[in-house]
Design brief:
- The chain is an all-alpha fold.
- It has a domain at 12-60.
- The chain has helices at 2-25, 28-41, 45-61, 69-72.
- α1 (2-25) runs antiparallel to α2 and α1 runs parallel beside α3 (45-61).
- It is elongated and about 50 Å long.
């Protein structure tokens, strides 16, 4: 019984990790499949919500980070758009 429980916990962790990666990557086509897999693995709705919230928080945490001169340099044309 302990082996089955450990396997189930590992399966739950894996599917939740994949769900988090899909959310961060914006792979919306995978959400429904991953939610179904999570349900089949015994993951609760609350656990899915927590992972989704954490993924969105991670995604947005770097959304408004200022760019440095070094990051802008390769594509920067001195403010000219080329028109």
């Amino acid at each position: 019984m302990k082996v089955a429980k450990t396997k189930s916990n590992a399966e739950q962790a894996n599917v939740l990790r994949e769900l988090q990666r899909a959310i961060v990557a914006g792979a919306t086509w995978r959400y429904e499949q991953l939610i179904a897999l999570a349900g089949a693995a015994g993951v609760t709705d609350d656990e899915i919500d927590l992972v989704a919230t954490a993924a969105v928080r991670d995604l947005l945490s770097g959304a408004e980070q200022p760019l440095t001169g070094r990051e802008l340099a390769p594509g920067w044309a001195g403010g000219r758009t080329g028109t």
